[in-house]
Amino acid sequence: MTITHFIPIMTFMLCMSGLAMCRKHLISSLLCIEGMMLALFTSLATISQTLNHTTTTTQPVVLLAIAACGAGTGLALLVATTRTHASSHIKTLNLLKC
Description:
Blueprint: H1 3-21, H2 26-51, H3 59-85
Helix pairs in contact: 1-2, 2-3
């Protein structure tokens, strides 16, 4: 395994452990998910450069567009929950109380 394959895998695992351990605020969870998406983007870009196929060159761009849409949706949810619950703590969010 080369260093170009090792770094995105370790970044993804670090963000996954950050998401599992530090779940106090919603913004930290969103940042960990965004880091995971960026690690997937770099690994897909590295793989598409290595394979030299024309079908794999658009996959990283599509993933980056989906990640941007997910980040926008996550920030909209953060603003909505902060306005309704007056904090971004995950423990105060209850899906059964609407």
